[in-house]
Design brief:
Helices cover 40% and strands 14% of the residues. The protein is an alpha+beta fold. It has a domain of 223 residues: Periplasmic binding protein-like II (D-Maltodextrin-Binding Protein, domain 2), CATH 3.40.190. The longest helix has 20 residues.
Amino acid sequence: MKKRILAVIMVAAMITGLTACSSSSGETKDGTEADTEDADSGEGSYDQVVYAFSTFNNIPADEDLDTVEEAINEITREKIGVEVTLKPISIADYSSKVSLALQGGEKIDIFQSLGDFNNCVATDMAYDITSLLGSCAPETKKLVGVDWLAACSSDGRVYGIPTYKPIALTPMVIYRQDIADELGIDMSTVNSVEDLTPILEQVKEAYPELTPLAPVQTGQIGLHTCFEDTDYLTDDMFSPIGVLMNGEMTVTDLYSTDEFKAMCDLARNWYNEGLVMKDSATTTSTAAECMSSGNYFGYIAAYSYPEKDTAASLMAQCGGYELGAKMVGDAYLSTSDVNSVSWMVASTTDVPEAAVKFLNLTYTDEAVINLLIYGIEGRDYIKNDDGTVSYPEGEDSTTVPYTAQLSCGTLGNFFEMYPMQGTDPASLDWELEQNKSAKTSSAMGFTFDSGNLKTQYTAVSNVISQYLPGLLCGSLDPETEISKFVGALNDAGYQDILSAKQEQLDAWSAE
């Protein structure tokens, strides 16, 4: 705790001296001043900001997206002198498309880290926003607080703003309540992913035409969320490179642990028994798409909301089937949990102040954030008398012209979003308590600087993408492939990364 407080104090002191936000001057990505065009240089002249966000829903048609865009711009023109272009990108393609776009000189001003905060900083994708927060986003700075901003910092500089939401993620199984009721399945007996096996077998026997378990997204059937007390040390939780486990301060190779082997054995058993989609390692189908088809019983994912609310909020996305949710692990908080979904300004932006001002609205302006999530009232959603929202009669998430509802935990301020019908407003208290009471990593606030290891990171990431999806989806045999996996990692420079992480962690701890 002492180390964490010290880190917060350092960031607080750093932020105290922020310079004023000016429309006539800005900064380069290293914090030095650079000239920018005055946003109000002429009547009707507005800074242009491209906002690239990930969506788990359908990509809307251009004409439908344009109406949402214009509704947002009616607000932003008046409030901050900015016009915004919305750029929704499918979650499966998001990271690669943003990276390629920025490398190719395409205009993107704001993007999400999506579990890759460290790499975004190390590869100079992200703009140093330290001196812009105090004057371009003072409300957001106060709302988020220096503790969470510290988790989005590197070498004392702030590079991102974390999504403000219930952030302590808990692994859950989302399942068809109607099937569970019909078969007399007691989901209260399921307290771990291992407990799921007899449930999946029972569903398979009763409904041989169904696949019991759906993938979450490409290469993921949810088991990556079920490693207990694991800190990914700034890196991508979907492809961890050196972790802390069980409260220790020794950097560990996850892939050589008994815990990893057990998880791969479980996936392999499910795969061989036909309990999980055979193409999970390569499919582009998401959990919502699979569940909407009616051909699956459930899936595993991590959520930060109570079981009942989680199930209620997902029903419309999953074909309208009655859903249940059951926790299969405990909540855990690490630096990566805070910064994994953080908003970053692109280092290539020509309007950094305008970008930060718009980000500020996504955290503070109720109208802006609900337009981003739900679209146009009356067309894309309706507001109910109790303050909740639902889809228009006869419509769902797949048929309305625009929705990004499944991105509700990734865009701006969750607490300013309208709750979906069926959720309990009182659950917000539970969610805030989870953030406070969740087990917290002993390295909270530590961020790893991988700038000198770009070659090793590229090589190691290629090896991980080759082996990890198959191992955690069951299509690769762990008895033969884990040893090959670890050997290939070491050949790619894996140990260099682990050693550097340990060295930096020890130095951080010594402070």
